[in-house]
Each structure stands twice: as structure tokens, then as C-alpha cells.
Design brief:
It is built from 3 helices and 5 strands; from the N terminus they run E-E-E-H-H-E-E-H. By secondary structure, it is of the alpha+beta class. Strands 1, 2, 3, 4 and 5 form a 5-stranded antiparallel β-sheet that branches. The protein starts with a strand and ends in a 6-residue tail after the last helix. The model has no long low-confidence stretch (mean pLDDT about 95).
Length: about 90
């Protein structure tokens, strides 16, 4: 299977998180959006969604072991995925 390699970029910290391997771009965006909206005391993505973006940075083929890095491509913006609180 070919996995997408994604990482979250922290604009304020000017750094990328440790990469994650996901089945698809859509699954990565959904997971990132869930985390942006997860209320927890120490969840920086929830309290500062404007500081975080999701990037695709490559692919990984688990049948050959081939890892292909790419120029980071922004695929989601944290503040755009933040939903309004439900009443």
C-alpha cells in the first residue's frame, strides 16, 4: 500500500511535527480537523488553530520500503477546520 506522509507545521514555533503515515489525504485532514476541535486543557491545536497547518511531505510504499519525499504541500489550515461551539 502507498501511504501518504503528513506533518503538522507550527507557524509560531516555525517547525514541523514528527511525520505520520496515513492511508489517504482525506483521512489525514479529518484526523487533523478532529484534533483542532478536541477540547482539552493542553491541546495547542484547539486553543491556537491559526498557528497550525497540515502538510503532505511524501509517500511510503510498504511493499518495497520506498520512501519518496516531496516538497511540503499544504493540504489543510487549522483555523479553517475550527468549528463553532455547539449550543
Amino acid at each position: 500500500m502507498i501511504y501518504k506522509i503528513v506533518a503538522i507545521r507550527d507557524r509560531a514555533g516555525d517547525l514541523f511535527s514528527q511525520p505520520a503515515f496515513v492511508n489517504s489525504r482525506g483521512a489525514a485532514i479529518r484526523s487533523f480537523g478532529d484534533e483542532v476541535n478536541r477540547k482539552a486543557e493542553n491541546n495547542q491545536l484547539n486553543t491556537h488553530p491559526e498557528d497550525f497547518d497540515l502538510y503532505e511531505i511524501g509517500t511510503f510504499d510498504d511493499s518495497t520500503g520506498e520512501l519518496i519525499p516531496t516538497t511540503p504541500k499544504q493540504i489543510a489550515v487549522g483555523k479553517d477546520l475550527k468549528t463553532l461551539p455547539q449550543p
